[in-house]
């Protein structure tokens, strides 16, 4: 599967992929191949991942990348990224995204991003998660970004997968990558609402 994803990413300047994984071994292989392919293609990589997975990936990456190449992989704890305000709160996450992405744009550094999304103890997260993904889709298209949004399919509440298919042009599983037939761009309104707070307006 990972070869198909890397081929798709390398042949498209802008891509926003929804990945609902089921098997952790397949997940780790896919994220590893995505990261290594990015570095070997001359890009930097922003990895937003759980602390547990970061520890495993650190070991695996050192087996495939040189020390110099490892410097191109920026690792961020996804709990700190998504729960910086104490809960899954889109304006606060938007601010974290601003902080993480700005150096790449200001220094004209090509990069790709992989994020493992978690919403903590938030009940019925579908609406609020979808709202933020709408805003992210706008940024992806506006800035020609390459982004994989990974979700643990075993923990997703009923209906969330279908909802997220609306804001991701491509859908990935452990075995496949297909175009989302449900995708419809809806991001500008979400971005406008998030940018109403001048302290959290994207600076790049």
TrEMBL record:
- Indicate the segments forming the MEDS domain, all copies: 15-169
Domain of life per record: Bacteria
List the protein's name: MEDS domain-containing protein
InterPro entries under this entry?
Answer: MEDS_domain
